[in-house]
Design goal:
- With about 210 residues, the chain is α/β, with parallel strands linked by helices.
- The protein is built from nine helices and five strands; from the N terminus they run βαβαββααααβααα.
- The protein has helices at about 15-25, 40-50, 80-100, 105-115, 120-125, 135-140, 155-165, 190-195, 200-210; strands spanning about 5-10, 30, 60, 75-80, 150.
- The chain has a five-stranded parallel sheet, with helices on one face.
- α3 crosses α4 (about 105-115) and α5 (about 120-125) runs parallel beside α8 (about 190-195).
- The longest helix has 18 residues, at about 80-100.
Length: about 210
């Protein structure tokens, strides 16, 4: 390839399966999972200023996209409907608290409440502020026009084919990668409330996916 591509791995958007593909490819991939929000992210962003990463084919991981902002780079995004993405996080934190019962961090405590049936999805959105601003943190609400490729988890197979073409590496789709189902059901009223809580994310998302494959 003749340029480096920047591809933030937004949590709960099919990125873990894609990470496996990238690690087993012949691409020169820089993995960056060092802080995506807060003071540590600000410091990491500062450290990356004016550094030339053009020797890499792709930079991938949990990072804010503006960490690698340059006209010399191309940009890729894979996103998911905000409510479905948050539901996946909700069940992830529930399951994490079960698999790591001694965990003490904020989301592990929320997960314990979820597992005990003490925290509904709507309540979770009210008290888990990062969950209602995920695309703000990772994508900085950049315009879709800045991206060479945009995909959605709903059309993961098509996105993977286009990504293969863009990077010049064949990625095989599998049933395991089609993780779009959820283990909870929202009432119509819950969906209305959730969309209101995620209104800012949806305003960006609905415009952004107009260029999705």
């Amino acid at each position: 390839m003749d340029r480096c591509y920047i591809f933030p791995h937004v949590p709960k958007c099919g990125g873990t399966s894609l990470l496996h593909h990238l690690q087993n490819s012949e691409l020169n991939v820089l993995l960056d999972y060092e802080a995506w929000t807060g003071p540590m992210a600000i410091e990491k962003n500062r450290m990356c200023e004016n550094v030339d990463f053009s020797q890499y084919d792709l930079i991938y991981g949990h990072f804010p996209i503006d960490r690698y902002e340059s006209p010399n780079y191309g940009y890729i995004a894979l996103v998911r409907d905000p409510i479905e993405r948050c539901i996946s996080n909700y069940t992830f934190h529930r399951d994490l608290s079960i698999s790591e019962p001694d965990g003490k961090d904020f989301y592990n405590r929320l997960g314990k409440w979820i597992a005990r049936g003490e925290l509904s999805f709507i309540e979770y959105l009210h008290i888990a502020p990062d969950m209602t601003a995920v695309y703000s943190h990772f994508m900085k609400y950049w315009s879709r026009r800045r991206f060479d490729l945009i995909g959605t988890t709903a059309n993961y197979g098509t996105f993977l084919n286009r990504l293969s073409e863009l990077l010049g590496v064949k990625f095989e789709n599998t049933i395991q990668e089609r993780k779009c189902s959820t283990s909870i059901t929202l009432t119509p009223e819950d969906r209305i409330m959730a969309r209101e809580l995620l209104a800012v994310e949806y305003k960006w998302y609905d415009e952004f996916i107009k260029s999705a494959v």
